[in-house]
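Appendix B, Record 12. Input sequence as logged:
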Amino acid sequence: MKFLIDFFPILLFFIAYKMGDIYNATGILMAATVLQMLIIWRMDGRLQTMHKVTLALVLGFGALTLGLHDERFIKWKPTILYAGLAIGLAVAHGVFKKNALQSLLGQQLKLPAAVWHRLNISWVLYCVFMAATNGYVAAYFSTDAWVDFKLWGYVFPLVFIVGQGLYVSRHLPKDE
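Logged structural output:
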């Protein structure tokens, strides 16, 4: 269910783009993201920081795209989001000696410090990869190709999340 909630704004964006243009699709993405956040808030009673940042970026870059009639803003939003995540995780780890993933998930997952360290590094690298990939596609490919990439590019996070799940599962304490 959670995957469907996470996926539906980009799916609606894709459909709206194929039926119209980038500006209609951007408006649909903005509305779908607001609805998505309302559903998450209703289910969980709160929005996590990542949800708030995503909402702010979608609404901010969407408004710039629509207001200035310039598609570059919405195309670069994922690059800024992923780069911001990579920087945030790296700075928390390198400067403040805090593992942000462990701070967020440590209550649900009991893992050794070395595993948390590897997870943090893998998330930084993944976010750098996604920022660079989106930036490259946004800069050097047509809007049609970028929109297709937004939908079919969901393979990257799926593979990454499954890989993380398999890695973490090996290190979870065994129930007696």
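The chain has eight helices and no strands.
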